[in-house]
Design brief:
Helices cover 30% and strands 25% of the residues. With 411 residues, it is α/β, with parallel strands linked by helices. It has 2 domains: 6-43 and 200-265 and 358-407, FAD/NAD(P)-binding domain, CATH 3.50.50; 57-85 and 96-104 and 118-191 and 268-353, D-Amino Acid Oxidase, subunit A, domain 2 (D-Amino Acid Oxidase, Chain A, domain 2, 2-Layer Sandwich). The strands form 4 sheets. Strands 4, 6, 7, 8, 15, 16, 17, 18 and 19 form a 9-stranded mixed sheet that branches. The radius of gyration is 21 Å and the shape is globular. It starts with 5 loop residues before the first strand and ends in a 14-residue tail after the last helix. Bound molecules: flavin-adenine dinucleotide. Flavin-adenine dinucleotide (FAD) binds at residues 10-16, 33-36, 40-43, 46-49, 221-222, 250-254, 257-258, 273, 275, 308, 350, 352-353, 374, 376, 378-382.
Length: 411
């Protein structure tokens, strides 16, 4: 196998940047290109949860009861626009076909090896000079009714059966958690997870990649990738054509635009989520809060609380839908005390790169020297560093690490 000396990474999200960083660790000269800027896709306003214990397949059997109800409720957390779009409905059909107990167990088994490496991969970045912090904290998980906790507890037991430690416990009745209203009656905690401020973390990673000698070019939209003698050629709007030994396509929800021609047939659908931040009265909330029945995730962010939710299957470049933010606000009003949901800042929409089978696409394409890294759906932040490390190993040694073996992009 010829030595890889240079690589172009397309996409400066968490996955592309982590891949760039690990290629540099292995002595590869790297250029990172992004059509907008660092973390301008899904890696900015997400919840920042590094929760391997919850990094499970998105399609689960409860979708068969929840999904049809959601279709009729414009404010439901799951949203698919009613319009003629055969590709979109084809994706929804394939996604639903994976919402069975057997498919969930298979996908969970495939995710478990990389889940188990996720936090240690963050330690490696931070020990290796990335000036950002992943914070350890217990998660607070709240339900209004005891019975609402059962599907969540059942799923976490499935994660534990697949081989992860999931230290989940219920607080005794009557114990109050500051800032949660008395309406939240069943309260659980989950240990062993971490969180980050995602945009600043990605920026710190990009700074480290630049400081180690990479060019990180923004406003650099890649319009074509092709194989040429001895390497790959990348067409970039506003720049001269660039060449390198290998190319990594890490373009999130836009991955098929460049990867389809190299045999990557799995549809990556934008599962759009929304977030905003809200001020908290008194002392700030210093731990994440999760309302699984409302499908809303909350994380400390810059002294405020970032509140995120919604899974909206639309195109990644469609306009922001203010109604989705209202739906999140309405779903958690009454669950908090002292969180001012009407003083919102940083309203944001981002596109999770969702695959029908719940597994990422990481590895070789049909063209030598062209690789893809993406399709992590809800879990690209927690799995980004471990993904980048494994892919850099594959590129520089030709050996596929076990933890990405199930994510073959040509499946
Ligand atoms: C509301 C919400 C909450 C979430 N919470 C969490 C969480 O708590 N934990 C977690 O692990 N994950 C979470 N996620 C998912 C996570 O954000 C994604 O899985 C992750 O950001 C994907 O990273 P990526 O690098 O693959 O893609 P992106 O971050 O989307 O990066 C892709 C980049 O490619 C660039 N690009 C696209 N096309 C081109 C082109 N042709 N040329 C050049 N550049 C291009 C884009 O500009 C973009 O910057 C959440 C997502 C949302 C929406």
């Amino acid at each position: 196998m010829a030595e890889t000396k240079s690589a172009i990474v397309v996409g400066a999200g968490m996955v592309g940047l982590a891949t760039a960083w690990h290629l540099q660790e292995r002595g590869v000269e790297v250029t990172v290109l992004d059509r907008h800027g660092v973390a301008s896709g899904s890696s900015w306003g997400n919840a920042g949860w590094l929760t391997p214990g919850m990094a499970m397949p998105l399609a689960d059997p409860s979708l068969w009861t929840y999904g049809p109800k959601a279709m009729l409720d414009p404010d439901a957390a799951l949203s698919v626009p009613f319009r003629f779009d055969s590709a979109l409905w084809g994706f929804v059909a394939r996604f639903m076909a994976h919402a069975t107990p057997g498919a969930w167990r298979r996908a969970m088994a495939a995710l478990t090896p990389i889940d188990r490496l996720a936090l240690e991969a963050y330690d490696e970045l931070e020990a290796g000079g990335v000036h950002a912090t992943s914070y350890a904290s217990p998660w607070v998980i709240g339900f209004e009714r005891e019975r609402e906790s059962r599907p969540f507890v059942h799923e976490l037991r499935g994660v534990a059966r697949a081989g992860q430690e999931v230290p989940l416990s219920r607080l005794p009745d009557g114990v109050r958690v500051p800032h949660l209203s008395p309406a939240v009656r069943s309260i659980w905690t989950l240990e062993g997870q971490r969180f980050i401020e995602p945009g600043p973390y990605a920026e710190a990673l990009a700074t480290s990649v630049s400081a180690r000698g990479a060019k990180v070019l923004t406003d650099a939209q890649v319009t074509g990738v092709r194989r040429v003698a001895g390497g790959t050629e990348v067409a970039v709007s506003g720049h001269d054509t660039m060449t390198s030994d290998v190319v990594v396509i890490a373009t999130g929800a836009w991955l098929p635009d460049l990867a389809r021609q190299f045999g990557v047939r799995t549809r990556v659908q934008a599962g759009r989520g929304y977030s905003f931040s809200a001020p908290v009265a008194g002392s700030p909330i210093d731990h994440p809060v999760y309302f699984p029945a409302r499908r809303v995730a909350c994380t400390p962010y810059q002294g405020r609380l970032r509140i995120a939710g919604t899974m909206e299957f639309r195109g990644p470049d469609e306009p922001f839908q203010p109604r989705r933010v209202e739906a999140i606000v309405n779903s958690v009003r009454g669950l908090f005390e002292g969180v001012d949901l009407d003083s919102r800042e940083d309203e944001w929409v981002g596109s999770r790169p969702v695959t029908p089978d719940g597994l990422p696409l990481v590895g070789r394409t049909a063209a030598p020297g062209v690789y893809v890294a993406g399709g992590h759906g809800m879990w690209g932040m927690v799995l980004g560093p471990a993904t980048g490390r494994a892919l850099a190993t594959l590129i520089t040694t030709g050996q596929t690490p076990e933890e990405i073996r199930p994510f073959d992009p040509l499946r």
